[in-house]
Design a protein that fits this description.
The structure is a homodimer. By secondary structure, the first copy, chain A, is α/β, with parallel strands linked by helices. Chain A is built from 11 helices and 11 strands. In chain A, helix 9 links the parallel strand 9 and strand 10.
């Protein structure tokens, strides 16, 4: 599959690398490819600058947001939640229309310090905002409830015996995304329902952040025990 | 222990019954004991009216909020989140001072229909509101992330292999509450930190509600897998 992964941060890198490993044709889309490839400083998390990652993943192309999405069969929004709507706008509505758009972003607001709060919650969600703004995109919210390394390789923790959620209005799109999740190693997939259920997974983030703060280890996930 | 359980709803009933079974001296506190004992209609969930439950638990006393809390060594807030501050106000600040106050309530707002949203979230929580209003109470938020039946008997699901969280500013109070939780059957107890971490567990409720909606079964809980 031709996949556009939007975002050059840790989530974008992890998803792009894994989909490349699974032999998809992956393009990382970013607002300013030249700027991204000119970076020399580690990111805020201490990860090497993007060009180091890019040099290690030479099968992955780097392109602008419209270029990356124009021919994509699957689009992954791995941008910062605060900039997601703007990034998708820059990709262009026509380039999203009819396509499955996996939305991993969380609307984290760091303006009040750590841990972040949410910039949208309770009666709305980023997933819904994206679906409303791009009604012809087939938005599926998923993978936003765990660390990037676990997103793409769940079996490294308890053999994969933990849960990933999906939310979206389009059943066929959710089935396709479930197939992608299975290819990543997910077996415990809970379909929560329509895109409004993204409120649930986005509002879980504050608990995720507190569990992370208490355990000092981001390599955890929750399992729905029933 | 002399325990005051505030609230006559399903959570109050479940907690009071279980603590009675564990040989604590339990008083259910409610604004209007006579009114509660005069009810003849099932509650909104179809449960029998309170007097039926009371007749089946004759060791449990029923009293006003100040009466129930005055001599209590442990207080459990199992009132509706929307009425919790008012109920605790009615109990009286002096009756709460210095005592461990387990807060199970969730600030659910049903005014916008189902599923409910939260009346406080993101930058504050009901747990924090209670602690701020009653600074001498030793508030511990816990048990607010699962069904009432699981709260008091976690071993009925997967042998208890799932997680309960605690949040609070007072370490001794949290240790006492952890002891109570263990007596109920909990073994997987995660201390998230101070009372501000109640934002995490209260904001999990929207996800709980969507999982419940998707699975149509309230007898589930999450386990932190790490």
């Amino acid at each position: 599959m031709r996949v556009a992964v939007l975002g050059t941060g840790p989530v974008g890198q992890a998803v792009a690398a894994r989909l490349d490993e699974l032999d998809h044709q992956v393009t990382v889309g970013t607002r300013d490819p030249e700027g991204a490839m000119a970076r020399t400083d580690p990111d805020n998390f201490g990860n090497p600058p993007f060009p180091v990652w890019a040099s290690q993943h030479s099968d992955v192309s780097i392109a602008t947001l419209p270029e990356a999405t124009a021919d994509a069969e699957l689009i992954v929004n791995a941008t910062n939640g605060a900039g997601s709507l703007e990034a998708l706008e820059a990709a262009g509505e026509d380039n999203l229309a009819g396509k499955v758009l996996i939305d991993i972003a969380n609307p984290l607001d760091f303006s009040g310090g750590m841990p972040p709060s949410l910039s949208v919650s309770n009666n709305d969600s980023l997933g819904e905002q994206i679906q409303r703004r791009f009604p012809e995109a087939r938005v599926v919210k998923t993978l936003n409830t765990m660390n990037a390394y676990l997103m793409v390789d769940p079996k490294q923790l308890a053999g994969g015996d933990h849960t990933v959620f999906i939310s979206g209005d389009d059943t066929d799109a959710k089935n396709q995304v479930a197939g992608v999740l299975e290819s990543l190693g997910w077996s415990n997939i809970v379909d929560l329902g329509d895109i409004t259920t993204a409120r649930g997974t986005e509002m879980y983030l504050p608990l995720w952040l507190r569990i992370m703060g208490a355990t000092q280890n981001p390599m955890f996930n929750i399992k729905v025990v029933r």
